[in-house]
Amino acid sequence: MTLDGAAFEHTMACFTPYTDRPELRGMLYHSDEEVYDFISKAHARSMQCTMHAVGERAIDQLLYTYLRVFSEQGRKDIRHRLEHFCLPTDEQIQMAKELDIILSMQPSFSYFWDGAGQEFANVVGRKRADRMDPFHKIIEKGITVLSGSDAPVAPIQPLTYLAHCVSGYNQVRNISVTEAIKMCTVNAAYANGEEKQKGSLEVGKTADMAVISKDPYEAAAAGEILEMEVLATIKDGRIIYRKEPV
């Protein structure tokens, strides 16, 4: 379910009005009871839930629904998620930690729209733009967060987004190389309940991996992390992509 919209369409559900459209503050697409009914039934059947929540009001709606359901039914190892979590408050980050909600986020958003052009700042103001995608705060809390592209909204470029998390334009959201790699690997596998099969290079796990052109730790230290390229992709132990030599 999609609980709200997006920033540039002015449908992301915010607590306060948009900077460029002060008569708007976005919208919620579903009532609290609709969201509760869905999650309550799914949780009772031990089905993992996730919903699109970008702005503070949508994030609030989903987190408090999880809290209500957990209070009524108890917690289970279902690994419920929240998609996007773009503009959370500090209180919402803490609540996600306490509820043990997995956050599926998209570094592609801030990579494309909070660079030199400052598109986010034009819509929500600089102060709120600096709160978008707060990877550092989230990981500091010990929350499991994974990285995606939200394709076709943004192209599938995992190495670019990994590099952006480490050495992006806006330092307020930068994290370590290790944490950025985990967002793309072990955390993603854990979120899908596949940590025993995927997510790390270990004997007995599925042989899914990418061969890249640079050591990401050395590349980050040299300021070259955005230059990494995929040289080969291996799926189930078979090479399915190999970059042709120049």
From TrEMBL:
Residues 4-241 form the Amidohydrolase domain. It comes from Hominibacterium faecale. This is Amidohydrolase family protein. The lineage of its organism: Bacteria, Bacillati, Bacillota, Clostridia, Peptostreptococcales. InterPro entries: Amidohydro_3, Metal-dep_hydrolase_composite, Metal_Hydrolase. Signal peptide: none annotated. One of its GO terms (molecular function) is hydrolase activity, acting on carbon-nitrogen (but not peptide) bonds. Pfam families: Amidohydro_3.
